[in-house]
Amino acid sequence: MDGAIAADEARKQADWKVGVDIGGTFIDFCALEANSGRVASLKVLTTPEDPGAELMTGLRLLAEREGFDPTRMTRFVHGTTVGINTIIQRKGAPLALFTNAGFEDVIELARLRMPDMYSLFCSRPDPLISRDMVFGIPTRMRADGSESQAPDMVAVEKAVAAAKANGALGIIVCFLHAWRNAAQEASVKAAIARLAPDLFVFSSAEVWPVVREYERSSTAILNGYVHPRVSSYLTALEARLKDRGVPARPMLTKSNGGLMNAAEGKRACVNMLLSGTASGVIGASWLARQAGENRILTLDIGGTSADFALIIDGEPQFGTGELIGEFPLHIPSVSVSSIGVGGGSIASVDAQTVLRVGPESAGSTPGPACYGRGGERATVTDAMVVCGWLGHSEMAYGQLRIDTQLAHRAVGDLAARLGRTVEQTAQAILDIAVSEMFVEVEKLASRAGVDLRDFTLMPFGGGGPMLGAFLARELGMKRVMAPRRPGVVSALGGLVADLRGDFIRTVFTPLSGATLPAIREAFEALAHEGRGWLAAQGHDAAAELTLSCDMRYFGQSYEIEVVLSPEWLTDDDVAPIEQAFHLTHQRLYDFHDPDGEVELVDIRLSAIGAGPKLSLPETEEVDVAAIPARRLPVYTGLRVETVDLHDRQALVPGSTFHGPAVVVQEDTTFAIPAGAQARVDRHLNLLLTFAE
Q1: What's residue 126's pLDDT?
Q2: Which spans are transmembrane here (predicted)?
Q3: pLDDT at residue 370 greater than cutoff 90
Q4: Nearest Cα to Cα of residue 207 among 61, 358, 42, 330
Q5: What is the mean pLDDT of residues 427-454?
Q6: Which of 145, 484, 490, 515 is the most buried (most CB within 10 A)?
Q7: Is 250 exposed, middle or buried (0-12, 13-18, 19+ CB in 10 A)?
Q8: 10 Å Cβ neighbour count for 585?
């Protein structure tokens, strides 16, 4: 009885913090009980027909299996693909665009670039707003922020009536030079609200007040396009959590790797379009710092895609201009490169009898053939099963049982067309998947100017450990680090993420002592805005403010981001800022002009409220040879070999073994090729090293 009373008391005092990430095939859960340090994780198949239902299923399973109590949840962080899937599938809201008369073709002209300049068959995507839904309003703001022509409100009234008649559910307002003065956009937005209160309206300056009208238009359009679906999803999410008695206010992961509350997410939908990929990199950065790894290449393979990012000096890299489907997003985001090759990517033979892999994915429904959920076409996962790397234990925390016969049948259909054996065809599928990832990673390394031989590969996601070691070997990388629970790293990223808000002011001014007071004033205004944003998120502790500027030499068309120290603005000397720009330009382009005139375009500020301080348990390493659970046949490329199979739960810190080998665990399977030496570290990370 005393034990039961103690257990009940512990349950009442529990402090659960939960991170959730929804991918194309699975929703991942990472739950931490803060008092005991116990971590529980889970994967549940997604329900595309009813987004959000899988979340409730996962919470119920956590309660049944782990003793999780939703009424004791003090932190809930959620990443979702609802926004990005809406864009990729083109299922967003019908919109109208109000712009300056004479500039109705801005979004169609874009930057006059082809997506692939080397393809004869390349075509540009159709805009999210068709030309007949773009309305020119007679109005003009000068570049200095003074008004040349006030908005013609009669034209606005006619445009609103036409937009409604054509079926628009929302209107985007984007006028020239609104980054300098947003008054015209604000007045037209207010007029639309009076004329058509049933329509939602977003102005470009409120979404992201950046210079260049196409970039500003594109970002505002993406925000409006996903708004109804994201807002409805989040409203239903809040209701479902309330029904389960969850007291924590839901927080959302953002594209910049930070968090915001759900109320803001309903308006600033564009900030969460890349939330899943970003939170994966944040989780990987946290794990890397825990393990003392400073230079990491992340490999996040889910059911649909493979995502890559660089972590340098323990920190993720950031940028702007990331592509959402086929459209540029010009808000700060964790820099991630993606390719349409995942565990569910479908293999096919084209009319020229060439084997191809992806980008079409089987998703969660019907899924790979080996899942036994109705899929009949061969996927990367099926190829892993046929080769023998996969299928030796239950998958996804016992939710899936692999049917090897179905996998052989699906791959066999391709083998018959190619005139190869089933094993050879499966290996070819894996080789193609790895080679496509190789090309994308090489491009990423070239853009960043890094040598990947100095980096450690961190594979995660359900499919990362399956292919990660093979990719590392092809890239010439010497180390691979797989976390204890690689399948839920993105969910962990939300759990450890900070609040982070990004703010920008376009100033367009020469960098000189005379302009420094204006630059300082803009920074102070951003700092005030950032602190106010953190307060609105419920953060009442100390705030960290990071500052950067977009700068260029006079005559250059585009600028580079330069990290600054705030104290540089307190003096009257611009030399430190100038020097930082020259050094950054030299690092990026191997060139700088110490006598060149410098122009400051944008001032950027990030307001950061630190998240919970968590740490992984550590255990002393004891050198011991790992004892395999059994041995099994695996086709390793040229022949079938008998390899060791290890259970991840049985591997203790200090355990060592060598490849080829298979490691099975609740959320994924780790395939380890020949030539790799494996060791478990004090954090239960599995480390591979390849001989020179």
Answers
A1: 85
A2: none
A3: yes
A4: 330
A5: 92
A6: 490
A7: buried
A8: 21
Q: Give CB contacts under 8 A, 24+ apart, made by 614-620.
A: 614/32, 614/34, 614/495, 614/496, 615/290, 616/287, 616/290, 616/683, 616/684, 617/37, 617/683, 618/682, 618/683, 619/652, 619/653, 619/682, 619/684, 620/653, 620/654, 620/682
Q: Within a 10 A sphere around the Cβ of 449, how many other Cβ atoms? A: 10
Per the structure block, which two tokens stand in for 117? 């300049």
129/289 Cα distance (integer angstroms): 44
In 10 A of CB 251, how many CB atoms? 25
3-state class (DSSP) for residue 70: helix
Q: Residue type at 102?
A: G
pLDDT tens digits, 49-84: 777 788 888 888 888 888 888 898 999 998 887 787
Write phi, then psi, for 214 (nearest 5 degrees): -65, -45
List the domains of the chain with CATH numbers: 85-228 (3.40.50), 498-607 (3.30.1490), 622-688 (no CATH)
Nearest to 425 by CA among 668, 635, 641, 642: 635
Residues 6+ apart with CB under 8 A from 136: 99, 100, 101, 102, 103, 104
Tell me whether strands 295-301 and 456-460 are parallel, antiparallel or unpaired. Answer: parallel
Calculate the alpha carbon distances from 467 to 142, 299, 301, 456 in Å. 54, 9, 9, 15
The 10 Å CB-count burial string (b at 16+, else e) for 641-672 is eebbbbbbeebebbbebbbbbbbbbbbbbbbb
Spatial strand order of the sheet with 95-100 comes to 134-137, 95-100, 170-173, 200-203
pLDDT digit string, tens, across residues 378-431: 999 999 999 999 988 877 777 778 899 999 999 999 999 999 999 999 999 999
Give the 3-state secondary structure of residue 523.
helix
Which is more confidently placed, 10 or 337? 337
Q: By the 8 A CB rule, do 195 and 160 touch?
A: yes
Instruction: Render pLDDT for 167-179 as a digit per residue (tens, 0 to 9).
Output: 999 999 999 999 9
Q: Which helix (H) or strand (E) holds 375?
A: none
- Separation CA 107–CA 614 (nearest Å): 45
Q: Which long-range contacts (CB under 8 A, 24 or more apart) does 642-649 make?
A: 645/392, 648/484, 648/686
Q: How many other CB atoms are found less than 10 A from the CB of residue 73?
A: 21
CA end-to-end span of the chain, whole Å? Answer: 60
* β-pair partners for 2: none
Q: What token pair was written down for 311? A: 């972590």
Predicted local confidence at residue 11, as pLDDT = 58
Bridge partners of 481, per DSSP, are: 687
**Token pair listed for 17:** 């913090």
Q: Does 607 have pLDDT greater than 90?
A: yes
Residue given tokens 């995507």 in the structure block = 125
Which bin fits 168, alpha (ψ -120 to 50), beta or left (φ > 0)?
A: beta
Token representation of residue 603: 């001032």
- Both tokens of 213, joined, read 């009208």
Question: What does pLDDT average to over the chain?
Answer: 89
Give dist(CA 84, CA 254) in Å, integer. 12
Distance (Å, whole) CA 494 – CA 19 = 5
Three-state secondary structure readout of 228-296: HHHHHHHHHHHHHHHHCCCCCCEEEECCCCCEEEHHHHHHCHHHHCCHHHHHHHHHHHHHHHHHCCCEE
CB burial string 217-236: b at 16+ within 10 A, e below: bbbbbbbbbbbbbbbebbee
Dihedral (Cα; 600, 602, 603, 606), 10-degree rounding: -140
- CA–chain centroid gap for 643, Å, is 35
Label residue 466 exposed, middle or buried (CB < 10 Å: 0-12, 13-18, 19+): buried
Per-residue confidence (pLDDT) for residue 470, from 0 to 100: 96
